[in-house]
Every structure is written in structure tokens, then in C-alpha cells.
Amino acid sequence: MKAMPWNWTCLLSHLLMVGMGSSTLLPRQPPPPSQKRSFITFRGEPAEGFNHLVVDERTGHIYLGAVNRIYKLSSDLKVLVTHQTGPDEDNPKCYPPRIVQTCHEPLTTTNNVNKMLLIDYKENRLIACGSLYQGICKLLRLEDLFKLGEPFHKKEHYLSGVNESGSVFGVIVSYSNLDDKLFIATAVDGKPEYFPTISSRKLTKNSEADGMFAYVFHDEFVASMIKIPSDTFTVIPDFDIYYVYGFSSGNFVYFLTLQPEMVSPPGSTTKEQVYTSKLVRLCKEDTAFNSYVEVPIGCERSGVEYRLLQAAYLSKAGAVLARTLGVRPEDDLLFTVFSKGQKRKMKSLDESALCIFILKQINDRIKERLQSCYRGEGTLDLAWLKVKDIPCSSALLTIDDNFCGLDMNAPLGVSEMVRGIPVFTEDRDRMTSVIAYVYKNHSLAFVGTKSGKLKKIRVDGPKDNALQYETVQVVDPGPVLRDMAFSKDHEQLYIMSERQLTRVPVESCGQYRSCSECLGSGDPHCGWCVLHNAKEQQKKRNWTFSQGSHGPLDHMRDTYCLCSDSTST
């Protein structure tokens, strides 16, 4: 029998790897042990901690929010520009802040913790909000971090006095012919009279305009905001809403939260405080916030409840996972990390789970709740807004997928929890962050942990169809912080701890030394090319093989095995 040509051998090896799209072919060999490798790393000043991270999708530049500084870095983590934001004389009791009027409280040198970092692509500026002066924001030019504006003279300019970096989340809604909108969600730290917990603000073209950060709508009765009633704090003195993640999809803006509430354990008449994870949804165009709905979310596997949300990321399903979930490849999925239990927020248990939510299913559940409430069934059921026992009012109207509420039956709570689909659990090293994307029809999740490791997980379906194909020690000490980001070309992943920012390749195909090890890893980025009397030249790195040699093949970003007869080179 005639020997198979070398180029066909190479092609077949790749096709065998790609053919593993079926969940039945998911490799089952254990991942290689966690490896300590050298990565490009940036460390700031010893006294400062890192808080937030964003990557410019157009240039690949990185913006890093830290205590007292904002950095602009190149894609290989070289410092391009530094902008100092603090420290300064302040006192959290000064409201309005001392830069507006004299404050009689004692002032001390206070750090400026970066609490929100957003790129406003339309106006080529960075929105950087800190903890100084009740949470005012700077608008910085992307090119050189030159300060374009720093509104501070109105109460709308004070976003939050909370000193935690993970307490504020913002989502920009963009328009082609109008000023953009900024949805801001923030913990209020016991000061509901000063700060709304959610609001929508104007993003004016002029960074120094008087209307910058003004409420989208405001009259004496209604405004584009939700405030926590002060009465709530008499029931739960330390009540607050902690915002973990936010995004927009379709006609809606969503925030994922942790909230304390008082519940009675089974068989008991006394109440205890627990934390509940909830998804909040608002219509983008709702200026009166009549569309506010929140629904509890959680996850359960093998009888273990995972209820404390740690991190989340919106991604697409991809063809393989979509097939097992019964959705379309382009449908939105929420990749979430929950820790076990419900009673601790600041000291979560190490047991954690990676869970998937189909966004359409959450929206369908919200629509069902709206329809039942507008039939007059049940109550508004939103305890923290003191409307738990207010009956729903009946109204004859059609409620479709894009219904945005009326000035009745709002705000609304869903009582029944929406359960996510558990795909992976970790019992010892709590998962703390997640990011995901689709590569060659496969959904891949990258998960950071408490000890500073990165887990690479291929998610082809629920139950046993998730494969952890690699674990890498990235930051030391941990934990990995919530913000992670892909490079512009999705070939690198930026991972952050409080003291370092590290760039990690999305794929590590070069570590495999045999065909079985490479294909058995389950990493869809990697294939194996058998070369006979040929040389391979690959886009991202040049590998020259001697006659009859073998080597790993990285297929990232539509690169391919370029084989040619050695006599022609």
C-alpha cells in the first residue's frame, strides 16, 4: 500500500482533533499538574494595590486602575503613561466634599481607590472613578491620560463614598446620533439619602459640560434612579447591594448582585441574615425605571447549594455547547462562579462551582412574572423596597419580550430562584474570577482562583462534559481579582492580583511532547502535525523541524500548518 503523503498526514491529525466537537469524544485524561512558568508581569509601586483593568479593543492598550494611579500600558505590559489620582486630604464624612465647601470634619491624607474604569469609545476617553470626595470621576484622554474633565460641583457627581474597589459597576449604552448613557450601580454604605443604588446618567460629548453625569430624567416626582429606603436599614442595619458584574444585551441592561436579607430557617420563627445573589434587569430606554425587575439566581450540584456569586462574564454559546443546551450558537450565556452556602459574603467558603445561565431562560422567567403580576396575581415581592406585601394590580395589556413596565406593579421581584447549569466544581481552591470565549465552535472558560492559579476549562455541555485541560500558577500570592481581559487578538489573557498584572498565553501548545499527549489534552487550540522531509513555519513562532520530526501545532486565530517540501525552501 502506498504511504500516505506527509501533507495528508498533517491534515488528518488536525481533522481528528477538530472532530472532537462531539461531547462523546471529549478527552478524559487528567490535566497536567499546575505549572510554574515565567510570564510577562507588571508590578506597580509597593504601596499601591491594583483594582480594575480594561483593554482597548481597537489598539490593544491596557488601562489599569490602582490605588492613587491610573496606568496606560502596552500590550506587553510596558508603562506608556501614568496619571496620579491621589492621595489627598479628605474625610468620608465630608458631604459635599471639601473641594466644594469647607468641611469641619478632621482631614487626613487619604488614598484614592479606583472603583470604576470604563472606556468611552465614542469620545475616546477613559472614565475613572475613585473613592475620594464621595466618589467623583475623571474623564481622561485615552491617548495620554490628559484630564479632560472632573465634574464635582453637583450632588449628581458623587457616585459613592464606599472605599471598596468592587462596589461599583458601570455599563455604557451607546447611540449613533445622541449622547450616550451611563448606567451606574453602586453600594451606598448606609447613605441612601446621598447615593442612588442604580441610576442612568448623561455622557455629554463635552467632558466639561454642566450636564455631565446628570440624571437622564429628573423632575420633582420621578428620576432615572432607584434609592434604597432609609427604613430598610432599621430592619437590616448593614444592608447594601453589592454589584458584581454588569452588561447590556438586546434592549436591556443587567446587573448581578449580592444582597443581604432576613429569612426564617425551616422550623424556626426567628430570622437570620443571609446573602442572596440576584440578577437585576432594566430597559435601556426606561427613564423612570418602571422596568426594574430582580430575580434570585443560584446553582446546585449533588445536593450542594452554591449561592454566593463571586464573578460573571457574558459570552456566546458556540456550536458545540449550543447543541447540548438546545440553544443557538449566537445566544448569550452567562458564565458565573458561585461559592458554597449563603451566610458569608466577605469570607466565602472554598467550595465553588462554575455555572452557566441561558439569558433567554432568565428573560422568559421575568416575562412570566410580569404577565402574572399584571393579571393581578401575587404581590410585588421586593422586600428591601418595602413593597413585599403590596398586591399586584390587574391591567389588560400584552406583555411581550420587550415590555418595559408602567407606573404600576414596579419595581418587581421574582420569588422563585432561577438555577444555573453546573459544569465544574472546585472544593479546595475557591474560584474567584471567570472570562470566556468561543474558539472553533467550543466554549472555553478561563477561571482564576484564590491561590493565584488559572484554570482552563473546555465546556461542551452540562454534567460531565466540562474538561479542565490545563492549570497554571500565574500570580503569587493570590487571589486572582475579578477583572480579567483578553488581548485585542484573543491570543493573550491579562490576569490581575492586588500586586501584579500578568500576561498569559491563551494556548500553550508547545508544552506537549507527543501526539497522544497533545490531542489527549482536549485543548481545541492545539493539533499535531507529522512532518516528513519538510519544514513548518507558523504565523506566531517559527519552528524548523528536521527530516521525519514531529511537533505541536497551534491553530490560534485561523493559523494553519504550512508544509512545503524541503527542497523548495
Keywords:
about 575 residues, mainly beta, ligand-binding face of the semaphorins, domain 2, five-stranded mixed sheet, 5 helices, about 35% strand, membrane, semaphorin receptor activity
Rg (CA only) = 26 Å
Question: How many β-strands, per DSSP?
Answer: 37
Count, helices = 5
What coarse outline follows from CA principal-axis ratios?
globular
How far apart are the termini?
29 Å
- By CATH reckoning, the class of the domain at 510-542 would read Alpha Beta
Q: Kindly report the CATH topology of the domain at 510-542.
A: ligand-binding face of the semaphorins, domain 2
Task: Describe what this molecule looks like in 3D.
The protein is mostly beta strands. The chain has a domain of 33 residues: ligand-binding face of the semaphorins, domain 2 (2-Layer Sandwich). It has 5 helices and 37 strands. The strands form 9 sheets. Strands 17, 18, 19, 20, 21, 22, 23, 24, 25 and 26 form a 10-stranded mixed β-sheet that branches. The chain is globular. The N terminus and C terminus are likely disordered. One of its GO terms (biological process) is regulation of cell migration. It comes from Pteropus vampyrus. Pfam families: PSI (PF01437), Sema (PF01403).
